[in-house]
Amino acid sequence: MSDELHKHGRFFDVWSKFYRTGPFGLELRRIQRIAIERLKILPGERVLDLGCGPGDGATRISETGGLAIGLDYSEGMLQAAAKVPALSGRLLRGDAGRLPFADGSFDKIVCTNSFHHYPNHIPALREMRRVLRPGGVLGLVDPRKDHLFGWAAIDLVENAVFGLEEVRIFSVMQWYRMLSECGFASSKVEVGPWWSPVERAEVFIQATA
Question: What pLDDT digit, counting tens, does each position of 107-129 carry?
């Protein structure tokens, strides 16, 4: 594994201790719920929660009747997720740039507010496309570069304060280009509503394999 991946893993190991506390963590969890609702998961569908953190998203997917698999690189986050009985045997540690799954393994993927931490963005997107079945759907949420709050949160705080130089965020148009380049058949890239500052600073993506 790369040094960058280890560095980001350690960052999330620390964050796992207080992820569920505080207003920012609550807002991230709320946005994750929105992303999952938009995917309209059907009972029996296999769904990868990529960057699953402490397992909140995978738990919600399971509650809808989906077969949730959670993958994260942070041992701290996975230890927190392992405390959820419904996720027993459904959690893996791995690199988003080299997913340990066969082609076409999933009906849907949800990835919320973790993509900018992946050191190799294009390979990670290609891997998501690879493990989705034809017609499968990726639901991804991430801060966007073409919004002041999104830019400040990543380029100023995570880069400057936490020293995570590898984090990258992208504009709406950049997302459309990357999704096409990585082989998705169609995509929709939307921004959050004006009345929610955190949502407004993010892109809400649905891309079909």
Answer: 999 999 989 888 889 999 999 99
What is the maximal distance between C-alpha atoms in the chain?
A: 43
Q: Whole-number mean pLDDT of the chain?
A: 85
Give me the CATH number covering residue 88: 3.40.50.150
What's the number of domains the chain is made of? 1
Q: At 112, is the secondary structure helix, strand, or coil?
A: strand
Q: What is the pTM of this model?
A: 0.86
The rounded distance, in Å, linking the Cα atoms of 173 and 185 is: 16
* Tokens encoding 130: 């690879």
Host domain of residue 77: 3-208
Q: Tokens for 205?
A: 């993506």
- Beta strand residue intervals within the chain, DSSP E: 46-50, 67-72, 91-93, 106-112, 132-143, 186-191, 202-208
**Interacting residues of 135 by C-beta distance below 8 A, sequence separation 6+:** 208, 209
Judge contact between 53 and 17, C-beta under 8 A: no
Return the structure tokens found at 151: 């830019």
For residue 184 the two structure tokens come to 């998705």
